[in-house]
Amino acid sequence: MLRKTPKQFIYIAIFVVPFLLLFFNSTFGHGLKLRFMGFGTWSVALARWPVQEAQMMLSYRKSFRENQRLKRDIGALKARVISLEEMVREEGRYERLARFREKQTFSSISAVVIARDPANWNSSLMVNRGKSDGIRPGMAVINGDGVVGKVAEVAKDVSKVILVNDPGFSVAVLDRRSRESALVTGSLSSKCRMSYLPERADIEVGDEIITSKLSTDFPEDVLIGVVTQVFPSDNGSSMEAEVQPAITVSQIEEVLIIK
């Protein structure tokens, strides 16, 4: 006959006591049953905690990956929206330039800005037209806002354009209001200089300056800019004026080259 050890009694108690507590209906047993069930509930909750934590970690990892994927999708959609918006703006610029070109009586060819000179960012740029398109040095360059500059150098398929505010640029002009004649040249600043005005020239701040028919490169009546300051020349025998160009140098993307 097998000898029962304390360990066997413990195993029997583990199985028998819960059975008696659950199925024995005495008042005493009922109280113990409730206590045992409460202990059991706590034990079950304690046992489930690692499982719940593991589920939360797995769920977090899945959510994190989903969040990363959604961020990538949102980034791609934003890039596409920006690209579409840029296409719409570009189409709008081409349309405005085409309408402006249709109104002109002179022959011209459209060109796109493809580069700028890093050493002279605001005074020159490169366009995608050259000798193969019939472009020559000295040709006038304009856009819908007004005078842009002149062609300075020409290669086979590209040309360098000096802008209206470059010191090497000059053009004969008129004050649109008073019809005073003068010469506009570029300067080292972002503005132009209007020279050779008579000592008592009728010119005022706010006057619009346009190209003159005396110009050998530009057609007449193309806007140069607006007078921002009037002052005596260095020798005191004539007047000069400061002119803010009509174009925004940093925003030039398409131009017309007058042939």
Structure description:
With 259 residues, this protein is an alpha+beta fold. It folds into 3 domains: 1-103; 108-163, Thrombin, subunit H; 170-252, Thrombin, subunit H. The protein is 37% helix and 29% strand. It contains 2 helices and 12 strands. A 6-stranded antiparallel β-barrel has the order 1-2-5-4-3-12. Strands 6-7-8-11-10-9 form a 6-stranded antiparallel β-barrel. Strand 10 (223-232) and strand 11 (239-245) form a beta hairpin.
Descriptive keywords:
elongated; Thrombin, subunit H; alpha+beta; six-stranded antiparallel β-barrel; 3 domains; 259 residues; 2 helices
Major β-sheet annotation? 6 strands, antiparallel, barrel
**Count of structural domains:** 3
Radius of gyration: 42 Å
Could you give the order of the helices and strands?
HHEEEEEEEEEEEE
Q: Roughly what is the average pLDDT, rounded to an integer?
A: 78
Question: From the helix content, strand content and strand pairing, which structural class follows?
Answer: alpha+beta
Distance between the termini: 122 Å
> What is the beta-strand fraction?
25-35%
Strand order of the largest sheet: 1-2-5-4-3-12
Strand segment tally: 12
Relative helix content: 25-40%
Output the number of helix runs: 2
Please specify the SSE layout and strand pairing:
Layout: H1 6-23, H2 27-103, E1 108-116, E2 124-127, E3 140-143, E4 146-154, E5 159-163, E6 170-175, E7 181-185, E8 192-197, E9 208-211, E10 223-232, E11 239-245, E12 254-258
Antiparallel strand pairs: 1-2, 1-12, 2-5, 3-4, 3-12, 4-5, 6-7, 6-9, 7-8, 8-11, 9-10, 10-11
Helix pairs in contact: 1-2
